[in-house]
Structure formats: C-alpha cells, structure tokens
Amino acid sequence: MSWRENKLTRFKSRESKQGRIKFLAIFFIVFSAVIVIKLFYLQVFRGSFYEALAIGQHELYKKLFPERGSIYVVEKNGDKQTLFPLVTNRDMHMLYAVPKSIEKPREVAEKLFELFGLSINIDIEAVEAELFADITDELDPVMASEIKQVRLAKWHEEQKEKEITRLEALLNKPGDPYEPIRHKLTDEQMAAINSWEINGLAFKNETWRFYPEKGMGGHIFGFLGFSDDSRVGKYGLEGYFDKELTGTFGEIRSEKDGLGNLIAIGSSSLKEKVDGYSLALTIDRAIQYKTCAALTQAVEYFKAESGSVIVMNPKTGAIIAMCGAPDFNPDEYNQVEDIEVYNNPAIFKAYEPGSIFKVITMSIALDENKVTPNTTYVDEGGVQIGPYNIKNYNDLVYGRQTMTEVLEKSINTGTIFAMRQVTPKVFTQYVKDFGFGKKTGITLDKESFGDISNLDRPGEIFAATASFGQGITVTPIQMITAVSALANGGKLMKPYIVSQIIKDDGKIETFQPQEVKQVISSKTASTISGMMVSVIEAGHSKGAKIDGYRIAGKTGTAQIASKFGRGYSDDVNTSFISYGPFNDPVYAMIVRIDKPQWGKTGEAVAVPVSTDIAKFILQYYNVPYDNK
C-alpha cells in the first residue's frame, strides 16, 4: 500500500471515530435533555401526584378525603351577619395500644380508668332505684342514708373493677401489635397520657363530627354514622344533604409493575378532592333553644310519650324552630335505647289531628261562600250518617250556634254541617290543595306522607269524620304549613329550613320563599283568622291569651286509634295551633304532645307550652302591641 493510500485510510478511520464520538455526544445530550424534561414534568407538572404518594398516610388522607361541610345558623348583629356553627368537624385522637410492648397491663389499665372513668354512660337514677328498691319510709332516716351510701359505694367499686378488668384484657395480649382503646380524645387527654411515658401506648389523629350546641334538636341535624365501612349522613340534614356535605373524594391512578409497585415513569393521574358544601339554616338559635327546652319540660311534666313543636314564619315558610322529644345527642347517637328516636316526630310521625283540623274545614266553607261567621245551625248533639251516629265531645248538646261558636266550643256536628255545605268532593279537593296526603318537600330526611286516602272512598262518612280531624292522619309539618296559609292571606308556602348552600369555592346558593298555591282568598284568610282570635278570647283556648296581643289559635284533643281493632283507646294526642299577632303575624306554631298521663286536653297540655314560647318570640322580636 502506498503512503497516499495509507494516509487516506488513517484519515477515514479518524473521521469515523470522530463521527461516533459526535453521535454519542449528541445521544447523551438528547438523553440528558429527555431526563431533565421528564424530571421537570414529574416534579413540576406531576409534583402533587408524587407528593401525595411520598407523604405519610395522614397527609395522603387529607389529599384524597374531602372535609365534610359544616351546618350554621345565621346570627344578626345590627347590619352584620355572622355564621355560628351548629355542626362542624373536630380533630381529635384515637388511643391505641401495642400490647406486646406493654410491661404492666394492670397498672396501665388503672391509670387509664383514673383518666377516663367508665366507658359508658350510666343512668344513675335507674341504678339508685334498683339499689334502694327495698328501702321504705318506715326505716329510720339515718340508717336508710347509711345503707344507701354503703350500697352505692360498693356498686361504684364493682363498676370500677369491671372497667379496669376490661382494659387490662385489651392490654394483656402478648404478640398483639395493635389494639384500639378509645376514640375522641382531646389534646389535654393525649398530653396527660404522653406524660406517663409508657411504652406501648400511641395515638392516631382522627376527624370527628362535632355538635357543639347541646339541646338544640338532634332531629334536625341527624348524625354521621356508618354504612358498612363508610361513614354516611343519616336522618335530618346530615341524611338529606349527605352528598353535598360529603364533597368529592380525590383519586390516584397509576400503572403498576408485576409486583404491584407503582411505575414512576408510567402514566398516572391525581384527581384532587373537593370539600363538601356547608349549609346555613333559617333556624333562630335563641328561639330554637327556648322551644326545645319548653317542649322537653312539658313532656317530662305530663309524663307524655313524646312531643314536637314547629315554629314557622307564615309569610315565607322559613322554619324558625323545630324540636322533638325525646331527643338524642348526635355526638352519642349509638347510645339510644330505641332507634325510633332518630325519626323526627315533626315530619315523620303522622297522627289524627283532631279539632285543630276544624279551622281547615271552616276556611273551606267560607271560601266557597257557603257559610259566614254568623251562619247558624241547630246542634242536636249528634249526626246520623248511615249506621254511624257521630256525637260531640262528652255527648254535649248546644242547640242553635253560629259558625264562630262552632270553633269556640269545638263542636263536631258544626264542622260536619260546614263540610256538607260544600259537599265531600269539594272538601276533599281543598284538603289536597292545602298539602295534606303528600310530602311538603322540606329538606330533611325521612319525611312521611300522612294518609288521607279515606277521602277517596265512597260514602259521606269519611269526609264527615275528617271535617273534625278523625279518620285521616297528618304530620305536624303539613298541619303548620296549611295553617300558615290562613295567616298569610291564603297563600300556601313551601316550608324550608336551609337558607343557603355555601360551596367549597365560596359561592353561595340562596333559597328564596316559594309560593305553592293561593289555596283560599285573602278575604277568607282574614275572616277565619278573626274567628280563631275569638276562639282564644271567648272559647276553649283562653289560656293562650297574651296581654297586648290578639292571637289566633285552636286546640285539639284527638283519641288514638286502638291497636286491637276498631275504635279508639283512652290515650290522646293533644295539639295547639296558633299564630300572631292577628294584624301582622310574625310566627305560626304547632305544639303536639302525645299520650300525656294527665291533663289530657289540648287546653291543659299543649296551650301552656305554646304560650310560653309565643311570649318569648314576641318579646325577642320586639313586636309592638296590637291590642292595647
């Protein structure tokens, strides 16, 4: 090979090496750029996703689990409005043990008992009644007191030993790596336990639903309970608005390898959570508290089975107060003796309304121009319809009476007379127009329909008994909604308890009053209202008088249908409906007390509760006198 050829070969070889070097350099530059771009993409654009994977379980929970919305009342202070929480969330702690690390289970159990006490609520009155059942008044008082003290002290020691033994059993499980001990610990309790410096006790953060206002009506709120392994809202607002309050859960999706591990460079996605919406209520906190306290006191005083009160703004349909008794504490919903207590009696418990329904019947006859307040008829003590002889309360006979006197004296035959003037068919249609037999649409879980199906059956007897509130069932929310139309110029309003939905982005959806129907004329509404004022001024409901104000109202005492066949038992439901003042009503109210053990009339049982609450409302609203 000539030197020229050799030189050319060496040149080509050197050129080839330089080409490979350039190629490799370009490859590594491109490869590095790809890595940098990928890292930039992962860290900047996908940073939140991998941050969610990298952080601990608690932070991941916060990333994916939305915060449940709160429930507020709106409080006014001059021109300012503030939201006061009735239902919110509270960060608390769960104590758990690692039993295999616990050295002295008995000592630890004793310390925990000293901090917590008993793990369940004890009805001490029931305990004492059982312990002291054999101690009579014949025993020397000093000796009786000593015996009681000894027995009670012994009972406390027995309960203490049972609880310590229970805790010791949880802590004394060699090899057990995890044993839950107690939920809902406060920061102070956690700090106290940490100060003991005991190996094997640890904490986990938890978020719990918190109901800070006691005695405000658990039926309105409902509670956050469990369905399988999920926590869901049940009953009341928590149940009805569960989806809105819950929000939207976040979600992580990513490709996995054969071992189930996430592939960092695989396709992935992070869907952020959306916190739940909050609710603002129409409830007035002060009136609600007063109403619930008055109802609870009355149910206890008359030893009644249950009761309910609704206070409504008749012009808008807004619920000002709603209470049921017996009530329950949503914070301790699982400690009730009977789950029936979860049902809100104001919207769920249908009953025969009795004589309060007479104002509905009379308003129908007035609206059809078939009677006036001064129209008369002759009462003979009973009305024969086919094989049925319908009589007045206590078999009384009144003789000639006006329609106003029919309401004042609560005469059954008088309302049958009024119904007959319009015919059963027209009467039935009005009853439906007033909203009976269907849900009002109030945004609370578990509302019931009531039952007016008898009115669709052939025969006058069904309309006759319904005219004075028997043979049909209604709910308190239906009844107060209908009566509010009498106070509102004949306009039937849809009841509502939520005034605002506050979304997670701060936007507010406001609920406005909604008119359902002009069910009677404004003239009829004014006339029936005047007749109802006369019921209080001159009739059966004189106990409802409030100095300086004209109040419209009507009592009801309804026998309860027998469980053992046809007819009625000796038990009664007592009711009172009212609104005031007459010239410009600011409230409408229904009070219902079920199965009082004494009193047993609307006048004796329901009226005092209503009057107590009404006086508070009129003073609270600073309503000027209309009859002074």
Automatic annotation (TrEMBL):
Q: Which UniProt keywords apply?
A: Membrane, Transmembrane, Transmembrane helix
* GO MF, one annotated term: penicillin binding
Q: Which PANTHER family match?
A: PEPTIDOGLYCAN D,D-TRANSPEPTIDASE, PEPTIDOGLYCAN D,D-TRANSPEPTIDASE FTSI
Give the location in the cell. Answer: Membrane
Transcription is among the record's keywords: no
Which stretches are transmembrane? 21-41
Q: Which domain of life is it from?
A: Bacteria
The biological process GO terms on file are: cell wall organization
From the Swiss-Prot or TrEMBL record, give the protein name.
Penicillin-binding protein 2
A GO CC term attached to the entry: plasma membrane
Q: Does the keyword Transmembrane helix apply?
A: yes
UniProt organism field: Candidatus Buchananbacteria bacterium CG10_big_fil_rev_8_21_14_0_10_33_19
Recorded hits in Gene3D superfamilies, A to Z, give:
3.30.450.330, DD-peptidase/beta-lactamase superfamily (3.40.710.10), Penicillin-binding protein 2a (Domain 2) (3.90.1310.10)
